[in-house]
Amino acid sequence: MNELFEPCQSLFQLTIDNNEFMSKAQRLNNYKGFIELVRSTLLQECFEVEMISNSLSSSMDRRLKMLKDVVNAHPRLGETRGQLSRNSKVEQNNLQNSQDPPEIQRKLLHLNHEYEEAYPGLRFVVFVNDRTRLEILQVMESRITSGNTWFQEMRTAIQELCNIARDRYYKNCCRL
């Protein structure tokens, strides 16, 4: 799991520690199916939390926190400090090693902050997929100004982190 997704206790609780999830996972015969099961499980959890989001229940708060934890397990784009997974170190180094001028790095940090103001409690997650920093900045700006609700953006982040996991699988399939 940690080879595909960022290490996160909440992700384990929503998946590996979940009997319903595991009964479905045991019928799978490949990692692609596993990643898609994680995707559908997280999206379903997001939908259910959104449906009860107007209630003031401790269950809703706990479930929402778990979803935030899964998304926020990913480092901010351009972040080099803190605990990074082996995969994130490689991915972040690729961003750091670009030949972009310092103003691009400053803009990246600024947009990370703007995003987190627009969507409190969420971190911007995107499957970079060999795009340049300039292209990623454009994606960030479009998502910040998209008018998405908080839950729409949560679903987008879930899709992106599962796309990252799928890419990690393809890049590392010999070791999994």
From TrEMBL:
Transmembrane intervals: none
Keyword annotations of the record: Purine metabolism
UniProt region (Disordered), positions on chain: 81-100
Bias kind Polar residues: ranges: 82-100
Protein name: Oxo-4-hydroxy-4-carboxy-5-ureidoimidazoline decarboxylase domain-containing protein
Keyword rRNA-binding: no
Oxo-4-hydroxy-4-carboxy-5-ureidoimidazoline decarboxylase domain sequence ranges: 4-168
Listed GO biological process terms: purine nucleobase metabolic process
InterPro entries tied to this protein: OHCU_decarboxylase (IPR018020), OHCU_decarboxylase_sf (IPR036778)
N-terminal signal peptide: none
